[in-house]
Amino acid sequence: xxxxxxxxxxxxxxxxxxxxxxxxxxxxxxxxxxxxxxxxxxxxxxxxxxxxxxxxxxxxxxxxxxxxxxxxxxxxxxxxxxxxxxxxxxxxxxxxxxxxxxxxxxxxxxxxxxxxxxxxxxxxxxxxxxxxxxxxxxxxxxx
Length: 143
Prior knowledge:
The protein has about 140 residues and is an alpha/beta fold.
């Protein structure tokens, strides 16, 4: 009877083997995941009629001195409007990406965006750099 009272049941679960198995599975998935998205090496036949055209993308940049560039070329607003209308006439699905220095006044950026929309281009994107999230307690305080 004494032996029965001395023995206690363990109600804890040893999670060390579980963590080991999970880490091994994680490593296996990390190694095999890039292999799942590999393409096939194919030699495609040639065709004279190309039915798929790549999307045309234009890049507009505004530097800190508020100068406007279309690609690498500096342009005036009138020249920009003309070039955008020509690009839209060639390809109605043309996309425009706008990059602007953070010190450029908002009104100047809106003026360029209006020029893009005025040329009939509907696809307009803003280019930004990703940054690390910073918790600013002063911004979170509603007072």
